[in-house]
Amino acid sequence: MALLSRVSSEASTAFANDTLEDERRYVAMLYRNVDTLRDVAAQRLARTQLHSASNPSARAERDASATMYRERIRQLEGVDERLCFGRLDLDDGETRYVGRVGLVDEEDQSSLLMDWRAPAARPYYLANAITREGVRRRRQLQMKGRTVLDYDDEFLDVDAAPADSATSLTNEAALMAALTADRTGQMRDIVATIQGEQDEIIRADINGVLVVQGGPGTGKTAVALHRVAYLLYAHRDRLEKRGAMILGPNATFLRYISQVLPSLGETGALLCTVGDLYPGVVATGSEPDDVAEIKGRASMVQVMANAVYDRQETPPVKEVRFEGDRLRLTQKITANAKRLARDTLRPHNEARPYFVREIIEALTNQVAANIGRNLLVDDDIEQIRFDLTRSPEVHQALRELWPILTPEQLLADLYASPERIEAATPDLAAAERELLLRDPKAPWTPGDVPLLDEAAELLGWDDRAERAREAAQWDADLEYAQGVLQILNYDEDEIDEEVLQATDVIDASTLADRHDDDGYLSVSERAAADRTWAFGHIVVDEAQELSPMVWRLLMRRSPSRSMTVVGDVAQTSDPSGTTTWGDVFAPYVADRWRLTELTVNYRTPAEVMAVAADVLAAISPGLTPPRSARTSGITPWCARVDAYVDAAPEAVHAETTAVGGGQVAVIAPTELVHPLGAAIRDRTTAEVVVGDGISLGAGIVVLDARQAKGLEFDSVLVVDPAGIVNESRRGLSDLYVALTRTTKRLGVLHRGDLPAELRRLSPRDTTQPTAATEHDRADEGAR
Ligand SMILES: Nc1ncnc2c1ncn2[C@@H]1O[C@H](COP(=O)(O)OP(=O)(O)OP(=O)(O)O)[C@@H](O)[C@H]1O
């Protein structure tokens, strides 16, 4: 078995073009190449913009070209930092450089730089002492900006290793450097140090639902983003047309991850939160957990259907004035019209013309009977019918009996009326019904978004002109959709019966139905504006938090069921969230979804994870904590204090000093966040940001556990852990999240008894750090 050994730049000798100077020259050549490509794209963009287009199709073509060049320039700018990060030397003498994008020699088309996603770059991530994959040496270039500072070598073939090199089975110098670096408030890509279990997920089959379960810090978010970059590379055709969406828990989180895809040369994915999923509505409101929980229940599907039915009225009798007459719509007449309209199985607004036709017919008959039917010829009857359809009184009656409704109107009317709520929610208790009541002017909440979407499905559009245009487009779309489905199911021979295929869940005509051509907009823009957009792939992060109603909405946006779902059922804090993945997917794909796990925690040092593991055991004894990739040598501590607002500023000051330029987060129960923020601000000159919408670059942030979800900081001070536990139904999960946000240091302030689960913390009399922090830092290292 080959051993794996590691040396730094001075020691290696046995390969061609091998000195630090050689590497610097090579990388400088790569940058010259990128600069040339960027200049060419800029010149072409300038030429395109000068071009005056005389007709709409020429304009669309020009705009499309301009967008393409702009994207190319953005892509090349995005990958500038650490463009090339590795090199492989193979048994047959071949050398491959691996980087963020692929570059080829203009003259002979040979590869200068291998895109990290290319199959030939894969050994860079997978080769190890046991499975060498033909690799003799893996070299990691240490880059700062455009400069190669140094490199680290791993020799997978012992014969190739210089005699003085130390042997080690886990040579992860670059990984450890990345893990111990100060956090900047922006997530970084991990492209240079992706680990084997992560690589498997990143490159997994695009088809079907892939669930990635992993504890805190196991790289779920990082892996999900790199997977999107990989899929955009490997399935460019499909995703360029249908787009990829990444759903995250909140806007702060989206800002935190926003730089990762551009740094991987990809700008095309749509990043959004649940609040963004209903075009035209900005769901900025918030509401108590128990209200959100009711709105998230699967039973709201029936509630929304009831709410629509309730608007299709059949009063005992409805009188309509028409040209001096009183016409009578009896319950029998309206009920009959209603039944006929409902029997069409069309959505409410689209079924309305059938109802209207029946009512007009009934009224026409009454008018004719009043005049005397035998006195009238067909043209007279037609005239009566026409007059009735133009009568404001008739219109008013029809509006009352079967109104045209928008989703917003339906939901606002429902929330505003105890009677409507009662009619729509026969299965809710009175107290729950009361929770749904709200001021019609209150802003929409994320919990309303899937209900609006459900309502839109039930109501349908009343836009016949648009439909006519769509019908003309349909044939072209059908042809396109057949193509998409072929791509989705690419090789018939390779189809695995267990893996859900696109054609299992949608046929071409349905997919074609979803396709719409809105002229030239980027795919992300078109997708964001279109409620019925069918994405090529959807990635859901912090997926454990989503309610059944949100899943229902997402499944509509993913008719091919091509999804990557990442989350941790131990971190669920939303009462509508899930603690069992099977429950989520059973209604949509039965058991045809794949589960994969990440097991190594790259964020939280072992000392902190030992504390958090006790909390995890209290959440569910069956869950296994992830293994930490490193220790820090820093002992997590707790201190009993008299008043949080007095003690926290001092503790924050000490932590800020301890982490030097790093970030400190104070995580507290929601009601303490603002008082603590104010107290800390009063006692420091550093930038302090408080609550949601935080600016992530600040040195000190104060937030609650839910706002901290998915984020990480150099030092975390948890204030009032018992308060966090008691604050919500899933308070222990919130505490688990809070404890695992740190990359280095953890302190806990408590007033009363410490929750029993935190017994491993080391008590202190003071909030000042104990050992010298320089010593702490020096101690930090690989396990
Ligand atoms: N292979 C890797 N190389 C370098 N850093 C990594 C690697 N994998 C993960 N990390 C780092 O570990 C940290 C945690 O990753 P990430 O936020 O993706 O974890 P997570 O599983 O989503 O965590 P949580 O569920 O707690 O939010 C990040 O700083 C990420 O960059």
UniProtKB/TrEMBL annotation:
Signal peptide: none annotated. Residues 193-605 form the UvrD-like helicase ATP-binding domain. Pfam families: UvrD-helicase (PF00580). Residues 757-783 are annotated as: Disordered. Gene3D superfamilies: P-loop containing nucleotide triphosphate hydrolases. InterPro entries: DNA_helicase_UvrD/REP (IPR000212), P-loop_NTPase (IPR027417), UvrD-like_ATP-bd (IPR014016). Keywords: ATP-binding, Helicase, Hydrolase, Nucleotide-binding. One of its GO terms (cellular component) is cytosol. Residues 773-783 have a biased composition (Basic and acidic residues). GO terms for biological process: recombinational repair. ATP binds at residues 214-221. GO terms for molecular function: 3'-5' DNA helicase activity; ATP binding; DNA binding; hydrolase activity. This is Putative ATP-dependent DNA helicase. It comes from Dactylosporangium aurantiacum subsp. hamdenensis.
